[in-house]
Amino acid sequence: MNPNAKEFVFSPSAEVWKPRAALTPPIPPILQQQTTTSLPSPPVPETNGTEDADDEEIDENDPLWKATLALTLGNRKEALKLLEDPDSLMQYPEIKKIMESGNDSNEVGDSWENMEALSSQLSAVAISAEVTPIDSINQLKDDSANSPKAPASSNFVTAEEDGEALAEQSEVVEGDPREHLNIVFIGHVDAGKSTLSGSILYLMGQVDARTIERFEREAKQRNRESWFLAFILDTSEEERAKGKTVEVGRAHFETEKTRYTILDAPGHKNYVPNMIAGATQADVGVLVISARKGEFETGFEKGGQTREHALLARTLGVQHLVVVINKMDDPTVEWEQARFEECVGKLKPYLKQVGYVIKKDVKFVPISGLNGCNVLNEVKPEKCSWWRGLYTSGAHNTFTPTLLATLDSLVISDRHPDGPLRIPVLDRYFERGCVVLGKVESGTVRVGDELVVAPTRKKAKVEEIVIGDNKVRSAKPGENVLLKFALNVEDVQKGYVLCTSGSLCTAVTEIKVQLALVDMLEHRPIFSPGYDCVMHTHTVEIEVHCAELIGVIDKGKPMRRPFARTGQVCIARLVMPLHTCMETFERMPSMGRLTLRDEGKTIAIGKILEILQK
């Protein structure tokens, strides 16, 4: 302590002391986004400490400043003038490259690694002395997305012309010429449907390794290490905690030949209505069977969802069924051919019973969804020596080694792009207009078409068509589309049908149907007039009442009977409380099939024979 020191007296007029030698020049916020460490410093002349305030705020490490300074051979005043004239500045390809790189400016390019060579090349360039004031240097970044303005003799186009061209070319494109297939994964709970779906997405490069590692850590924390692939589609906390799919998961992938949409349906019996909603959109069903001892038997026996899902898939119009025998790598199986043949042998009679032609519509593939064996790449002969000989001989109607190869080999028929337009509404929401989700069952929809919403008959013009993430000009049968209209969301409901005024979809309250009674309830074992249940057809779910039992088919002829039992086929007249959009099976099979369910159980499947009352 200095005893001779004067007492401190505070002066309110004193300025804050700043050590100028150590002060770091402030970086403008716009330039803070562009930093780099790979650029060598351009030649900077010695300063005498009398530069302008604008010069003091320049970040000497900014790549744009370095490049501009190199263009002017180290002349700071000329460099500042050039920065104020973005049109002149953007004529240099080196500047355009930096601006297009955006935040990735750490990798500028080889042309900037040798500043001396660049300076010698640009020594003859005359830099304009005219200054065009701009509000912010950020305008350079905005202008860099378009071509700069240039003299009349130049081949450049203006930013406005370029922006219009981009809007026409990038926003709306033609549809992908490859065929599109909707695949629904069905089967008993815990058969491995979600894991298989996630495995396909990972193998096809739709999920990065870092995301998979995060899912692995999360699954390990839940003591469910084998669930990590299922987390790709099971996104809700409820689904991940219980390990059960509740809502239909949706994802996309593609091969060289075909574009696919995965529909991961829930397997638990409490969520069969959700499974039906997914299966109504599907062209191909993948029936996932667990080969693990005990699990196959549980799913296939009476009360298991394997039977009901296969039945519903056929009823809802799924043309092809690929049966995958999953978990072949389980310790209880170890890729045994005997277990594979046992599962196939028990499934074939039932699938034939529900209406599939085994030699035409059904294929069988052994896989391991968790390890990816036989999903994209064929299983190694050391693990499974018998599979190559089996598929090369065409056993079980299978001629391809893997699941994806089998899917690529399928051919979908009965698609009519020139037929009457039918798009059953699956869902709708509001986003700058009414956005409708549905599948094109028949016909072709184009931007600008005026469609009719049946049964309300409201008319609306198609403003946008989106397939996946792309805006397209048109959509053909089989495509899952998002259509945008200038409507209120209340004007469109699930189960409504989009059509054209020249070919309206019929809205009815009474229909004549043919039913196959597959499994009546124990306490309601007969089907007779007065029976109430729930009917599912395309995206509609509505209560129906049996008004009349027209007859029970016996030896090919309808016979008058007071009731029908399980296993019998009958013709009945059903009545609905609301007008519902339907078509006869003969005219449009995809909208003429129906399923009857009662107390959470499928009791009958059938088809619409006749529209009785419109």
Task: Describe what this molecule looks like in 3D.
The N and C termini lie far apart (105 Å). The radius of gyration is 34 Å and the shape is globular. It contains 18 helices and 26 strands. It has a nine-stranded mixed beta sheet. Strands 3-4-2-5-6-7 form a six-stranded mixed beta sheet, sandwiched between helices. Strands 18-24-21-20-25-26 form a six-stranded antiparallel barrel. It is an alpha+beta fold.
Features:
25% strand; 26 strands; nine-stranded mixed beta sheet; alpha+beta; 614 residues; six-stranded mixed beta sheet
Sketch the major β-sheet: 9 strands, mixed
What is the first-to-last residue Cα distance?
105 Å
Average of the residue pLDDT scores: 77
Question: Structural class of the helix and strand makeup?
Answer: alpha+beta
Question: How is the largest sheet built, in terms of strand order?
Answer: 1-14-13-16-9-8-17-11-12
Helix content: 10-25%
Number of helices: 18
Sum this structure up briefly.
This protein is α+β, with helices and mostly antiparallel strands and about 625 residues long. It contains 18 helices and 26 strands.
